[in-house]
Design brief:
- The chain is globular, with a radius of gyration of 29 Å.
- By secondary structure, it is mainly α.
- It is built from 14 helices and no strands.
- The termini are far apart.
- Helix 9 packs antiparallel against helix 10 (254-264).
- Helices cover 84% and strands 0% of the residues.
Length: 378
């Protein structure tokens, strides 16, 4: 009886294949794959954050190298030695950044006293207006709030928390200088030996995998360079347009505000709004409510010109990402790395989409990203 019953029990027991081949098994397999991918991604992000002092300078060096790759190609075609061409490009980058910093300092230093005086007058006027409001606090409440603020500031400045914050600030400055030096060194080698470094990295790949790696590498450099050059061109036009409007209206600090518009334009959507808000606040303090409204109108007009004309012409449709993708990328980048993460999030997202678009061929996206025949007809 035992010998005859054992095969029957074994036959009735479902096999592992049958357990994983039905609908629930398929869902479990996919869920397990998603968990593994998310775990690996989280581990990779955590590891990169632990060595951010190396990762961020290398990433910035790659972006600068991709941006100025056409200049290096032109210099090489003119038979300029690699070392000399690299030094020329590096000096150009340093002079450009130094010029922007000097322009900001010069303009702020020249007009700061006037703006500070106007801001003080505006604050005094605001304080005098508050008691006239029906819901305004009385004089005793204002004095109490002032005393509370003074006591809080005094306690904070004399606390150990302020001292630890100062030490953390010194450490942050040291980390910034270290990262800046590392970025310059890495950028030098990327500009000088970029093609050689890339050929070395391609050695492990053969056949179709090597062709795919070559496509991906070329697309990364092309996308980063095109994105930064296009964004810089759009930002320059925005800054010049807003600068002309501010100069016509006589708003102080017009040059620093225009430079700020240029820099914040590298943060899509959010940057333009923040720059416009700052310009309107300066106009409100210096020249009143009507001028501030006109400044807002100028900012909106320039932003509309940028979104509907400049970006499609200067950057091309290939680099255009959906607004939802941009907002999600900005959110993730800001959560992970603050302002720098917000600046780098969109170009990284553009690079990821560019890789998907050449995954199976120069003009053939990955299978899952290809449009269906009905979408093509539409």
């Amino acid at each position: 009886m035992g010998d005859g019953a054992e095969p029957t029990a074994r036959e009735d027991r479902p096999s592992a294949f049958r357990l994983w081949s039905d609908g629930l098994g398929y869902l479990g397999t996919r869920s397990l794959q998603i968990i593994i991918v998310l775990t690996l991604t989280a581990g990779l992000i955590w590891g990169m954050r632990q060595v951010s002092l190396v990762v961020i300078p290398v990433l910035l060096a790659l972006i600068f190298a991709s941006t100025f790759a056409p200049v290096m190609r032109v210099l090489r075609r003119k038979n300029v030695p690699d070392v000399l061409a690299t030094v020329i490009v590096l000096l150009g980058i340093v002079l450009l950044l130094t010029g922007i910093g000097w322009l900001i300092v010069w303009a702020v230093k020249d007009q700061w006293d006037e703006l500070a005086s106007q801001a003080q007058d505006g604050f005094t006027e605001l304080v005098n207006t508050i008691p006239q409001l029906p819901f305004a606090p009385d004089q005793d409440q204002l004095l109490e709030w002032r005393d509370q603020f003074v006591n809080w500031a005094t306690d904070f400045l004399t606390s150990s928390q302020f001292g630890s914050g100062a030490i953390a600030g010194v450490s942050a400055v040291g980390s910034f200088v270290t990262g800046l030096v590392l970025m310059i060194v890495v950028l030098f080698f990327f500009l000088k030996d970029g093609p050689k470094i890339w050929r070395f990295l391609l050695r492990p790949f053969e056949g179709a995998y090597r062709e795919r790696a070559q496509r991906v590498g070329g697309k990364v450099v092309q996308t980063l360079g095109s994105y930064v050059r296009g964004t810089a061109s759009v930002a320059a036009v925005d800054a010049i347009g807003i600068l002309i409007g501010l100069l016509i209206l006589g708003v102080p600090l017009a040059v620093p505000l225009a430079v700020l518009v240029f820099l914040l334009a590298f943060i899509p959507i959010v940057g333009a709004t923040l720059a416009g808000t700052l310009a309107a606040l300066v106009a409100l303090v210096s020249d009143g409510f009507v001028t501030a409204i006109i400044v807002v109108g100028i900012v909106v007009l320039v932003n509309q010109l940028e979104g509907n004309f400049l970006q499609p012409v200067l950057m091309g449709r290939a680099l255009k990402l959906h607004s939802l993708v941009i907002l999600l990328a900005l959110t993730v980048g800001t959560v992970l790395s603050g302002v720098l993460g917000a600046v780098l999030a969109v170009p990284i997202a553009a690079v990821a989409w560019g890789i998907v678009k050449v995954w199976d061929g120069p003009e053939t996206p990955a299978k899952w990203a290809r449009p269906s025949p009905s979408e093509v007809e539409q």
